[in-house]
Design brief:
The chain is an all-alpha fold and 116 residues long. It has a single domain (5-115), classed as AhpD-like, CATH 1.20.1290.10. 84% of the residues lie in helices and 0% in strands. The chain contains five helices and no strands. The relative contact order is 0.16. InterPro entries: AhpD-like, AhpD_core, CMD-like. Residues 24-106 form the Carboxymuconolactone decarboxylase-like domain. GO terms for molecular function: peroxiredoxin activity. This is AhpD family alkylhydroperoxidase.
Amino acid sequence: MIKDYSKNYNNLTKLMSELATKLPETMKGFNELHKASISDGILPSKTKELIALGIAITVRCDGCIAFHVHDALKAGASSEEIMETISVAILMGGGPALVYGCQAMEALEQFIVLEQ
């Protein structure tokens, strides 16, 4: 099941930039929504990234997993917090979430290695 989540993250970042040139209003709206939703509020950004990761796992979105593992780490989430998020996602999403939870764990391990 080995996937290169760093490469996936970088490729999607590039593709989203390209999409922004073709759909500027759509991407502007999405980026504003993302910023408003993820920025610190009552819930800190780290918590919001962990919630987004749990949702990404349950809806089985590879690219979302790459982004939210990466961004959760950048927001200060620990490996243990990410693993606990995976656990809750498995509870809510059952067997399919278990498979994508394994992929999120794999992404976490890859991003941790890159940070060292």
